[in-house]
Amino acid sequence: MPLHPPLWLNRHQAGLALADAFSAWPGRETDTILVALPRGGVPVAAAMAAQLNLPLATWSVRKIADPAWPELAIGAIAAHGVVVWRNGDAARRRAQAAAQQGWLAAQQQELERRRRLFGDPADERLRHQHLIVVDDGIATGMTVKAALLSLRTVAPASLSLAVPVVSRGVAEELEPLVEQLLALALVDDLIAVGLWYQHFEQLEDEQVLALLHQPAGGRDEARASRSRSEGLR
After folding, report:
1. Residue 18, C-beta contacts closer than 8 angstroms, at least 6 positions apart
2. DSSP readout, 104-128?
3. Pick from 195, 229, 206: which is nearest to 42 by CA?
4. Smallest Cα–Cα separation from 17: which of 169, 148, 136?
5. At what angle do helices 103-118 and 91-100 cross, to 10 degrees?
6. Which one of 37, 133, 157, 224 is separated from 11 by 20 to 30 angstroms, measured CA to CA?
7. Is the separation of the CB atoms in 56 and 34 below 8 Å?
């Protein structure tokens, strides 16, 4: 049956739906960590963490874009020097422009700021753990691909990906990078992730930190309260 947006009220509701689906996965280990991609992946993963009683961590990534078209990702960066570029003959030209114009350096600085701010874990914390990477949706796949390649360098026991919505073609590209991929909605020609949510506000650093610093019980209660308030808008 074809899917039509929106499917979820907000990121919290999508995270609860992912938690329900994830709980049915066979062989879920106790040494599992949910790894959220800030900022949008944190509310989704926080809802999952509270529902599944799993630890929550972050792994920062940064999109690289031409300032003239800031919404169009031409590449992405993550820890351990991982840089990925959009496929095609123009990739080398984009990489050269990003380096020459300072776009790459600016995003590297922002990446390090976020890693410190959100407290991305040291490699040793993730090594030999079953990592479930969580985002609020995937359109181009640039940032998620960078995150997966970067996390693979820490030698996890396994690496999986869980998202509410993803472009079907991008999912096919990402599947070889993970042991398991869980998506609630596979969409042809995904234009914008935000279309699949009734409320898809931009998150500030303070909102992300509040979620990360709450204990699981408080996080769940806060998100439930926010869900109710958003439903009244």
Report:
1. 44, 47, 48, 134, 162, 163, 164, 182, 184
2. HHHHHHHHHHHHHHHTPPPHHHHTT
3. 206
4. 136
5. 80
6. 157
7. yes
* Within a domain: 73: no
CA angle 230, 197, 113 (to 5 degrees): 85
Per residue in 187-226, pLDDT (tens digit) is 998 989 999 999 999 999 999 999 999 865 444 444 444 4
CATH number at residue 165: 3.40.50.2020
Number of domains making up the chain: 1
The bridge status of strand 32-36 relative to strand 56-58 is parallel
CA pseudo-torsion sign 13, 137, 147, 117: negative
Residue 145 lies in a domain: yes
